[in-house]
Amino acid sequence: MPTLEVRDLRVRFGRTEALRGVTLELRPGVTGLVGANGAGKSTLIRTLVTLERPSAGQLVWDGQDVTRRPERLRRVLGYVPQEGGAYPQLTPTEFLQYMGAAKRLDARAVDAQIPELLDAVNLGAHARRPVGSFSGGMARRVLIAQALLGDPQLLILDEPSVGLDAEERLRFQALLRERARGTAVLLVTHLREDLDATADRLLTLEGGVITHEASEPRAARRPVRSPLVLTAAGVSRA
Ligand SMILES: Nc1ncnc2c1ncn2[C@@H]1O[C@H](COP(=O)(O)OP(=O)(O)OP(=O)(O)O)[C@@H](O)[C@H]1O
After folding, report:
1. In whole numbers, what is the pLDDT of the chain averaged over residues?
2. Helix, strand, or coil here: 182?
3. Which of 70, 98, 119, 136 is close enough to 163 for a disulfide, judged by CB 3.0 to 4.6 Å?
4. Which atom of ligand 1 is nearest to the CA of 43?
């Protein structure tokens, strides 16, 4: 089972130690990550997607130490960044082709997958319009689609559903649940509703360390009100 092991990860910016020894395992399924502003969520994500170099600690993918081999991780990775967007002059199809080339995926396989991905985020009817003419939520869905190119084994999602309307959020949640069956997903979000609908477990980051972990099968949490409550101190039971 493809697993990312994060061992005692530390990231320092000058005098600030943004991550102070994070240890966790990402297995197939959705791991939700919550934490207050400044807790270190973005730093953790940026390190996992190899944009930031750890000061100490290890990243182990599928049993192999990839800490100093970022290209190994990039090969299996899909990423929705918190900010940024598709090039406005490109259509979603062109942007996905561009991203496929950047990820060194086979061009024909990418072309074959694009219609399915655009349908999955309900943009099939807009494949020929430039992304610059899209609403914020539509542009966000283009980013979600590009993260799924090549069926990555590891998905890192930073506030992926910001700007999505109610219907599109439900579609996104269903897509994520379906993908997470064989894919390790890390979902950072402030949206409780997305966590309730998708997360198999919840991690709380505080001051650069994981302070709480709550594992609950989604099904057990969904029916009534969620038994998990997010408080300033982390995750607790109602
Ligand atoms: N490039 C940087 N240079 C210096 N300090 C940084 C840098 N990036 C993050 N930090 C510091 O590291 C700490 C963690 O920041 P980070 O952005 O990871 O938190 P976060 O949990 O993502 O917050 P938010 O919810 O506001 O996005 C903060 O103290 C922040 O000021």
Report:
1. 90
2. coil
3. 136
4. 18
